[in-house]
Amino acid sequence: MNLLFRRKNEPSRRQFLVQTGCSAMGITSVVNTLAHLKLMQGALNAQSSGGGYKALVCVFLNGGNDSNNMLMPFTGTARTDYETGRGVLTIPTANANAALNALQINATNVAESDPLGGYLGTFGVHPKFNHVKTMFDTGELAFVSNVGTLTQPGVTRANYATASKPPQLFSHSDQQVQWQSSIPDKPFTSGWGGRVADLLDPVYNPTTGNASMSVSISGVNSFQVSPTGVVAPYVMTSSGVVSFGGYGTNYASAVNNPSLLFQAANYKTGEQGRRLQAFENILQMTHASLIENAYNGVVMNARVTEGMVGTALQGTAGATAGTSTLDTVFNDAFVGSGFNANNDFTNQMKLVARLIAGRSSLANTRQIFFVQQGGFDTHTTQIPAGSNTGGHTGLMNNLNCTLKGFRDALTSMGVFDNVVTFTASDFTRTFTANKGDSSAGSDHAWGGHAIVMGGAVKGQRVYGKFPVLKLGAATNSIDSTGASGRWIPSSSVDQYASVLAKWLGVGDAQLANIFPNLSRFNSPSSAAANLDFLDFSV
User: Fold this and answer.
1) How far is CA 525 from the centre of its chain?
2) Which member of 4, 70, 160, 419 lies 3.0 to 4.6 Å from 234 by CB, making a disulfide possible if both were Cys?
3) How open is the CA angle 487-488-494, to the nearest 5 degrees?
């Protein structure tokens, strides 16, 4: 369990940053250009709070999503190259079985995302992306093409051997950390979500007793690691809060009312009640040792935070969102899919929706959530025949329905405009198949496509530059090495992530503190960079 709650006799985060920012610099450096003093100055000088509630939801597609089949050319020269290069992994457009065909989407800016001019015709999405297609066509969702970890711009096939590149490319663990830190050329110290939270928390969540700005529904991650420890993420599971063990479900064996904390009359008279009372009495003691006090503070804060989060969830115990129950909203999204809505990933997203519904109990106007969908390491049987739930087909099916259910839940609460959901993944996968039969999959690659969804998204567009789907040394190829289709990213994680951070409230002057490598690339929201996918006024 994690530190989330600040008691009233403790300094505020603003005071903490002022008092410790300079001294902390003498102990350690956060990252190359991100020092404690800069975080302190950022927190004190960031734009004034306001604009109501906003949240970012990071959906990490763990294992390396083959986004070549998530977003693809539907017509044009690029379609010909797609069918030639993908081989047995091709998603058709004119199969006799319509359920296997790609779904054409109505992108409004094909020319801007066209890498050559005249290369792209129209775009299509995975056959199981019917809800995604609808949200794209109605302007609620967009794609950002060919994003990946980069240390410097200008990497080409010709200079690949000598150019500065992220270390350990094509490694799951390394690329996951680098995606979530955005600083691949330095040892890991913090995630970009953690740095954003450290900067914005004292500005937007200054209330004494508020919950952590960072909440993970999928375990410990690199994305939300704070460089200062000021905003420690609260880690949950898709089942809810993680309670102290040995006291029954939701402390039923130890207390009469789990919502009441530290009240003598509330403890039950049995052994478990007495044991919990004794333990919590110890937590409230003051010790001569600063280390003991710090330890007690962490555990005490975790216990109190658990109560706060429990209260927020209790308000949605019936899974109510607006006039519909969340269960109904999510179940409706899965109708006809052949997929069961009661799965871990969908339950993670449902829990995020419940926390947003109960946000008043957490006392925050800014939040960052982390969820994770696993299973994307599709080296074999990527397209299982006749299956809607297996392989990459099943993953796309589940993602499609879950995003639809989450969208409908937020809409029923009236907060769809206040939440931006975005995807990230280790990397995409090789464009070519690793076999020539139905058991084929794809291997580890580099730049891939991402999804952004929300009322603030300038939808019905494909941002960034789509890759030229030519292999090896062919003219205009951006295949990094060999001839398997490992696309060199045309946009960096820094550029992609900084647009999200700016929408949440990071000022232009502070972007460099959060993303120290950003200045190496084009301005993230400029027309030239073609990454202006969010409306900052929403």
Assistant:
1) 20
2) 4
3) 125
* Cα 352 from Cα 346, distance rounded (Å): 10
Cβ atoms 309, 236 nearer than 8 A: yes
Tens-digit pLDDT profile for residues 221-255:
999 999 988 888 888 888 776 666 778 767 778 88
Lowest model confidence (mean pLDDT) among 142-146, 307-311, 345-349: 307-311
Angle made by CA atoms 354, 308, 456, in degrees to the nearest 5: 40
Largest interatomic CA distance in the chain = 79
Encoding tokens for residue 176? 């996951």
Q: What whole-number distance in Å separates Cα of residue 520 and Cα of residue 374?
A: 32
Residue-averaged pLDDT of the chain:
86
- Beta bridge partners of residue 368, listed in sequence order: 56, 214
463 contacts: CB under 8 Å, gap ≥ 6: 109, 112, 113, 142, 143, 144, 145, 530, 531, 532, 533
The amino acid that residue 239 corresponds to is S
Q: Check if the beta carbon of residue 341 is closer than 8 Å to that of residue 397.
A: no
Contacts 24+ apart (CB under 8 A), 129-133: 129/70, 129/103, 129/396, 129/400, 130/103, 130/400, 131/333, 131/400, 131/401, 131/403, 131/404, 132/400, 132/403, 132/404, 132/451, 133/103, 133/105
Quick one: which of 346, 348, 401, 353 has its CA closest to 370? 348
Rounded distance between C-alpha atoms, residue 174 and residue 168, angstroms: 6
Please compute Rg for the chain using Cα positions.
24
In this predicted structure, what is the pLDDT of residue 237? 86
| C-alpha distances in Å from residue 426, one per residue of 27, 174, 392 | 32, 8, 15
State how far the Cα of 326 lies from the Cα of 353, in Å rounded to an integer: 8
Please list, in sequence order, all residues whose beta carbon lies within 8 angstroms of the beta carbon of residue 58, skipping any fewer than 6 positions away: 193, 223, 368, 369, 370, 371, 422, 424
Residue with tokens 């069918």: 83
Is the separation of the CB atoms in 44 and 18 below 8 Å?
yes
pTM for the predicted model, two decimal places: 0.86
CA gap 125, 74 in Å, rounded: 8
Report d(CA 183, CA 93) in Å as an integer.
39
- Distance in angstroms (rounded) separating the CA atoms of residues 103 and 151: 35
For residue 9, pLDDT over 70 is answered with no
Determine how β-strand 491-492 pairs with β-strand 234-235.
unpaired
